[in-house]
Design a protein that fits this description.
Elements (H helix, E strand, L loop, with lengths): L2 E5 L2 E3 L5 E8 L8 E6 L5 E7 L6 E3 L7 E6 L4 E6 L8 E7 L11 E2 L3 E5 L2
Parallel strand pairs: 2-11
Antiparallel strand pairs: 1-3, 3-8, 4-5, 4-9, 5-6, 7-8, 9-10, 9-11
Length: 121
Amino acid sequence: QVQLVESGGGLVQPGGSLRLSCAASGFPFSRYPMTWVRQVPGKGLEWVSRISSNGGSTYYADSVKGRFTASRDNVQNTLYLQMNSLEPGDTAGYYCAKSCEGTNPATCGYRGQGTQVTVSS
């Protein structure tokens, strides 16, 4: 079955960096575009980024453009999100997801358990 396992979250000061990872299994990873979404407790899911199946195309929400970079390793079946210049507003649970339609996170067919990112001084 599809498994998505995120890691790499933590507490970081404003302006700092984190690199999230998502280990994928149970499906042909290299054939699927992948998505990062995030959620603040009590609020809805927010689409963050999408990367094409071969990693050649990436798309970002305006709120993270220029600060976040998505990448993938199709040999290791792993998705990454490099987050730089972090802001308190980036505080959220971050999830990798599969089979999402466009930028609507509610349509994602699969989502991992998430990793918490907290940006605070």
